Structures are given as C-alpha cells and as structure tokens.
Amino acid sequence: MTFADLGAHPTLLRALQQRGYETPTPVQSAVLAPEHAARDLLVSAETGSGKTVAFGLAIAPTVLGEREKFDAPKRPKVLVLAPTRELAMQVQRELSWLYHHAYMRSVACVGGMGMALQLKLLAEGVHLVVGTPGRLVDHLERGALSLESLEALVIDEADEMLDMGFREELERILEAAPRDRRTLMFSATLPPEIVKLARQWLTEPQRITATPPQQQHRDIDYRAHVIAGREREHAVVNILRAHDAASAIVFCTTREGVTHLAASLAERGFACVAISGELSQPERTRALQSLRDGRARVLVATDVAARGLDLPDVGLVIQADMPNDAQVFQHRCGRTGRAGRKGTAVLLVPVERRRGAERLFFDTHIKANWSDVPDAATIRTRDEERLLESLTAGDPPADEDLVLAERLLEKLSPQAIAARLVALERQKLPDPEELPLTAAAIEAEKRYQSRPVQGRYENRGRDNNRFGNNRFGSSNRAYGDNRSFDNGPPRSNYGDNRGSWGAPRGDVRGDARGEANPFVPRDRPFSERPPRNAPDSAWYTLNVGRTQNADPKWIIPALCRRGGITKDDIGAIRVLEHETRVEILARAAQGFDERSRQPDRQDPRLQIERSTAPAPRADRAPYVGPPGRRGK
Ligand code: AMP
To answer: Distances from the Cα of 177 to the Cαs of 81, 149, 153, 160, 468, in angstroms?
Structure first.
C-alpha cells in the first residue's frame, strides 16, 4: 500500500513524495485505515515507528478537510502535547515539512526557552501549537493561549508524561479544550493508568497496536559484552572504534557519568558531544545539530536528556551503564534501527550483573549475541585493513602531487614514504585500549562456573542444570537456555541481583562449602530497606524541579556524592514544578546536613537546603525507589 492508496491528504502527499517517503510504516497504515477516520485513537507506538507523521496524516481530514491549505492563522486548530522540550521541537520540525504546502504556521511552547517569542507568535495567530505541559499551562493562565478553536489534540508519549509527573497539567489542558475536539493519544506502553486516562478524556477511543513486540526489533543487532566495571570506559572506546559507525549514542545513568565519559572520549580524539539535564536549551540544540551535520560522531547522554530525540542515522547505541528497567532498555535500543534502517545496540554488562542482564533480555523477548568486547589487537588488525583499503582507493593523483612525490622519492625510499603516510593516518585514530581486568574477570567467572555443580547448589533442591550450563562464551544462552526454567523466569530486577533466579535470598551467593560467589554483591534483606515518609526523617529542598529536568536518576547519585550517604539513606523523593523535596532518613541526616552545606565544585548550581516535608499529594504516589523495589 502507498500513502495515496491509504487516502492521505493530497497536500501532505506532495510533501511525502518530496521527502522520498513512499511506504507507510505499520503505525501510519493503521491510523489511516478507513475504520479509524475521524475517531479518537489510543495508539501504542514507539519513537522511531513513524508515529509523528502518522498523527500528522491522521489529523489532516479533521483540520484541513477538503481544503488544500489553511485559512489565515488565528487561534490554534491543533495542539500537540509532548513530555520534553526536545520531543516538542522535533514534532514541530516534522509537522512543519509535512504541512509545508498547507502554509501551516506553528509555535513550540516549551519550558527553558524565552517567553517573548512564544507570546508574540501566539498573539499573531497560529494553526498548530506544540508544547510541554508546564509551559502550556503557563500560557493558558496568562490568557495568551486559547483552546476555543481547537479541532484536534494529540498527546504524544503519554506514558512518559505521567512518569514525569505531568498528570495535573495534562488534565488542566484537556479541561480547557472543547469537548467536540478529536483526540489522539500515543504511548509506547499502555499501562492501566494510561488506559484509564484515555477512557476518561477520549471519546470511545479505538485502540491500535501497530508494532507487535516481535516486529519491533528486527532491524537491530543486539549485543552484550561482559566487562570488568572498572574498564567500562575502555570498553566504550573499543566498541566505538570497532564499529566505526557514522554516528553513535552512548548512554550513562547519571549526569556526572555523561560529563566524565564525554570529556574522556573527546580527549582521546573522538568527535564527541554530550547532553544531560543540566544543559540549557541552546546548548542541547547545538550539541544535537553537530551530531546531525556530522561534526560530531558520538553523543553521550542520560536517558532523560535523550528521550524522544530524532536522530535518524544513529547506527550504534552503547549502554555504558545498565538500565534500571526494561522500558529504559527498550527506549535506549530504540534510538537505532529506526524507520527500516539497520543498527547495533550494545549492552555493557559488569560481570557481577550478568544475571540482571539476562533477565532483561528474557523480559523483553530479545535474543542478544553475547561476545567479548573487541580487544586492542583485533581493532589494530581491522585498522590495517581499512587503511590499506582507503589509501589504495580514490582518484588518480593530480599532476602537482606527482611532482611533489618525485621530489620525495629523491629523499626517501618508497617504503619510508609509505610508512610515514600510514603513521599519519594512524595518528587520526583514537588508540584502542587493553582490557586486562575484563579478561581476568571473565576467566575467573568461567572457572567458578565450571566447578562441580553439586556443591554449589545442593541446598536448592531444584534442577541444577539451569545454572550449570550457563557459562560464558556460550552464545544466546541469555534467551534460549533460560526459557526452559522449571520455576518460571528469574525474579531479580535489572539494577542488581536481588533474589535472582527466584532462589531464596542469600542462597545463590554462597556455595555449600561456605564460599561466596565473588561475582554477586552482598545484599541486604528487604526488611532492612529504608522506610518512606518516616516521622523522624529530615527533609531537604533542591533548587531543581520538573522544569529543570529533575529526575531521581541523577538526583540520587548527586545526593549520595554531596551528602556522603548511600541510596538506602534516601526515602521519598518528590519532584515539584521548580524544586524537589527529598527525605533523608534520621540515621544519615546529621552527616548529610553538614556535608551538603559545603560548596561543591563539581556541581555548583545544585543547592540543597533543609526544609519541611511537602504536603501529601492525593493524586500521585511519591517516588519509592527503582522499579524492582516497587510493590515488594
Ligand atoms: P518518529 O517515530 O515520529 O520519531 O519517526 C522516526 C523517523 O522516521 C523520522 O525521522 C521520520 O521522518 C521517519 N519516517 C516517518 N515515516 C517514514 C516513512 N514512511 N518512511 C521513511 N521514514 C519515515
């Protein structure tokens, strides 16, 4: 089927043809199906599935009808809500080319960017507003934005929107929109709260699942490499060198991690940019632009910063830090293999977290190829082949170059000249790294795994084979072997090894002779984990909130570093509009108080002050730790 067969609006069809988009993606075919015309839709689709063009096409009959172009702009006819600035800007870019021949005027109303221009454009009149919930509510409250003439409303990445705590703002906007509008809700996942939200705010929504799980990943080559945690950075270097992708994204969990890794890669000679929550909008835009136009080849990013970014040519994704849950993992992988292109997604697995990684692949139905990180010798051999190829290819030399070559030959032998040329080319390549700790850790793990099975697991009373066969080097064991578990899949979360393999706690980490498994960190029973909202806790206020991209993912490590505490000393975290309230348990409060007041050179902008507990919120549960802990 072509876009024309699906009845796409003729004005948009012209733009699609000019852009070279001939075949609709599954989500585009689904939303354009005749039975979905003019209906409210609840669509589960990932970033990269072509969902922006999909909703752009879907709303055309509603907002353009038979007309070829829009009338003069007044109050907006279309509103698209997006959870992040980047996604909003990206949606605006995408819809701008799609509606180019319809003379559409649009404005992006996003936080962190000047108000004046947004107010001016809104006052002049627009057809489309794309924005983040906080800033849109701001405009509504100032009376700068009127939704009276709204005909179509799109909620993009609705699950992210709720995860980021935007429910209140979202509902405020939905309330302000006319009842007879058409509403399309897009979400990567459809948890019950999203379905409930859709039932409440959409009119008899038609549910569409355009990308069934088994089809989502076919263009991605998934790889997992076991590493020694201390060689993570070196492993990233070697993977970047081995793949030589035109552009790559490296994910880290914390802002500090991003800053450190990006600096280190740049120092080694990689053309590298970084984005994390602390960057201003112009800084992020600059970083992304340099990746798009090829000045940079590597982007180092946190999950929050990279959410929803449209970087179509990313051929390689490296997860330098393990993700905390399956959703984050899939989001990261989804940065590559987009719109039919091929890509590679590499997960670095510290040796002690191998089981967490296996569980991750099991849960996401992904078959990964487990192999060793490319070592320095392999990369050097490959460099030589590439050098030979590139130096012998190309156009015949120009006359003036031949003259200079003759003069060179008078001074040096042909071998010496060739060797100098090779040396010059080699200099341009960042050095690959040796990985002695990784090799040793893998070797030690192999030895541990190959000891007699009986002693190690005799207390378990279960099928020892499940573990005994699970050695390093055996490819695809993460998925293939584990599926045959007699007791269901392992239960650990991905962040650690708690309760892994469904074994009683503590069982897996020691063998019958009392020898500890050196690869599994010691853990504490759940009963010792911190309570939330305890009466004797101390509360602190951080000067960052939702508008500054506050996220427990980077707040927790920052608090631990600044206050000399561990994550177990942190209770509830409440991210508000412009600030974040954090609960520090009584046992750690005094030390935290003293240390957090010291100026911090690494993160001078983050201020931490003693405060009171925030009022309880009826509509949102406080942050209660990573997903693996929830509900236990
Ligand atoms: P999205 O899922 O909206 O983030 O889109 C991902 C990328 O796919 C964007 O760069 C789109 O321009 C591109 N794209 C969307 N539809 C098509 C199509 N039918 N053919 C090729 N590329 C597309």
So the answer is: 12, 8, 8, 21, 60
